[in-house]
Amino acid sequence: MSKKVPFWVLAIVLIATLVVPAPLTSPAAAQGKTLMEADTTDGINFHPYLTTDTASGSYQGLVYAGGLMRYDEKTLEQIPYMAKSWKISDDYLTYTFTLRDDLKWSDGTPLTSEDFKWTYDQAMKPDSDYPYRENFDFIKSYEAPDPHTLVIKVKEKFCPALEGVDAVTPLPKHIWEKLDWKDTEKNPEIMHPTVSSGPFKLKEWVKDDHAIFEANDSYFLGRPKIDTYTIRIIPEQQIAYTMLKNGEVDIAGVTPEQYNEAKQAPNLNMYEYWLARGSWMYIGFNLRNAALQDANVRHALSYAVNRNQIIDKIMHNLAQPQYSTVVPTNPYYNGDVPRYDYDPDKAKALLKDAGYTPGSDGNMQKDGKPLRLKLIYGPNSSKTLEKIAIVLQSELKKIGVQVDIQSYEWGAFLDVQKKPPFDWDLSVGAWAGTIEPYWMSQIWSEKFIPDLNAVGYVNKKVEDLFKQSGTECGPSRKALFNQIQQILAEDSPYIFMFQNKSFSAVNKRVKNIQPSPLGISTNIEQWDIQE
Known about the structure:
By secondary structure, this protein is of the alpha+beta class. It is 24% helix and 22% strand. Strands 14-21-13-20-18-19 form a 6-stranded mixed sheet, sandwiched between helices. A 5-stranded mixed sheet has the order 8-9-10-1-11. A 4-stranded antiparallel sheet has the order 4-5-7-6.
């Protein structure tokens, strides 16, 4: 996969399944060294500036290199990637990057600073439909004075500016400038890119069936040792896992309940790691629902959920509790925030404070109307999400709240969650976090309703604190992020559940895998196949 993904994209990519941050792709039948992966969710398209889902991001990361810099897997410091060096002016307002000399597209065309600038200019157009366009507001100018240089100026000193200015995945100007930016009928590159800058090229994609990628001879870090990487779409997770055990595929998602068996399988290696940026689970409240606009009701529902039991029985202790928006492994984590640990009696008392009383059937009601909620999750193939939904239904029933469960295929889930009439009340979801908490601001911003802020949360104080954290550098930033976590815990737009431990089961014939706090596929071009 690409060595660098824009930081805010990492913050706000919604995780399609709760099984694990597993390796990002796989191979199909072909000549040479082939890697095969079974995945339950297919991508939407190959346009990095029109998608926010994990599956699409994984596909895009294989074909498009993105990032002037990347994190060092050991130190987590910024090191060169597509740029070989950079300079920061004394006033922190100008960032000058010098590109590597060996960058080129898979068709042999040089990849230059003009590709970066052209892509930036297109994404910044008001009608571009780029979900994260406003994250570039701090940039004053983005220029390419020569083929190997980028000069980026910012409007004012900005603490995470070095990460922020490095957020362009370049598209091939010589191909795309002749085509429509967002119309798939007028731009076939959106669904089937013909040139690549990443470790692989797209060979074939049959939607909802398979995607085949082949090694890119022109990749600047060197041609991958794997010749073909195929992803087979297997909607049923159990079937995908069975294929992994049987050696039919090399990679597939493993659920917590399958973990012990997979770890003991003679043909599999189990890789375990805590991601520095974290992956965490939540139950989102649809704040358009009048009943859920009452904080007492949200807190009551939070107290009704036995988080530790879910971690123990469903996640098999491959997780740790979380109570606000920053994961415990992050240096900005605030462990001193309000906690709504399991307490059904408190839950009932808060519902009473909110005006609810038990009806003749024992169900809570107010003004003759029962508190009945619709809980949604996706994809419907995830047994882990299904179990969590059933537990939530059972726990809330104990305090007199009726819950109806509805599962969806991934794309349909996103539509129901983010499009009118917003027919849901509770949503089981997960986020991939960031090391820099500033980039998490979008999921709490009114501007990003409903694309990223699907629950419809609005708190200007939180937005102001995030904005302040962008300009107030130094030790005081920790206090700002502490306040943000405190407020979000108090407001409870989510039931914050837990941070997932990452684990990936891979066939032993796949060699040179080196998991790190950044993930498992950062060195994918070095993966090898040995029978």
